[in-house]
């Protein structure tokens, strides 16, 4: 049997199509989940930044919560067996949460700094 390397996974010739489909489905799920979480966090952060005062950091709390949740998801993924939710495992949810938290925090910091700028 001929051995192939497909996206970092070693698989036999008769299994490559199924494995490619599963990996592609998981990657697409993580990207979509990350995009949806990013939009949600950005909206929540923008509302909190606009509603909070200049001396408060409440506008960043949503990103902090999702950052901690992402670390917990990645930690749980290494401890327990495969758990798949909406096509992505707990590790994928963790990666998506960390990505969304980082992008949301960057956008919130930029908006907050422009809001507090005294020109």
- Tell me the fraction of residues in β-strands, as a range: 5-15%
Would you identify the regions where 5 or more consecutive residues have pLDDT less than 50?
none
The separation of the N and C termini measures 70 Å
What is the strand arrangement across the widest sheet?
Answer: 1-2
Query: How many DSSP E strands?
Result: 4
In angstroms, what is the radius of gyration? 19 Å
The main sheet comes to: 2 strands, antiparallel
Domain module tally = 1
Mean pLDDT: 77
N to C succession of SSEs: EEHHEEH
**Count of helices?**
3
Oligomer: single chain
Helical amount: 55-70%
**Looking at the structure, what is the overall shape?**
elongated
Structural class: mainly alpha
Description of the molecule:
It contains three helices and four strands; from the N terminus they run ββααββα. The protein is mainly α. The protein has one domain (29-116). β3 (84-85) and β4 form a beta hairpin. α1 packs parallel to α3.
Could you give a quick summary of the protein structure above?
This protein has 119 residues and is mainly α. 69% of the residues lie in helices and 10% in strands.
């Amino acid at each position: 049997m001929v051995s192939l390397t497909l996206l970092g996974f070693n698989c036999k010739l008769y299994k490559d199509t199924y494995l490619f489909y599963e990996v592609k489905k998981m990657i697409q799920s993580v990207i979509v989940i990350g995009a949806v979480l990013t939009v949600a966090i950005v909206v929540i952060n923008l509302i909190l930044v606009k509603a909070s005062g200049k001396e408060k950091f409440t506008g960043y709390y949503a990103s902090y919560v999702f950052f901690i949740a992402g670390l917990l998801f990645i930690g749980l993924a290494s401890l327990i067996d495969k758990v798949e939710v909406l096509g992505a495992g707990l590790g994928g949810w963790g990666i998506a949460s960390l990505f969304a938290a980082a992008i949301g925090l960057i956008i919130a910091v930029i908006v907050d700094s422009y809001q507090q700028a005294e020109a």
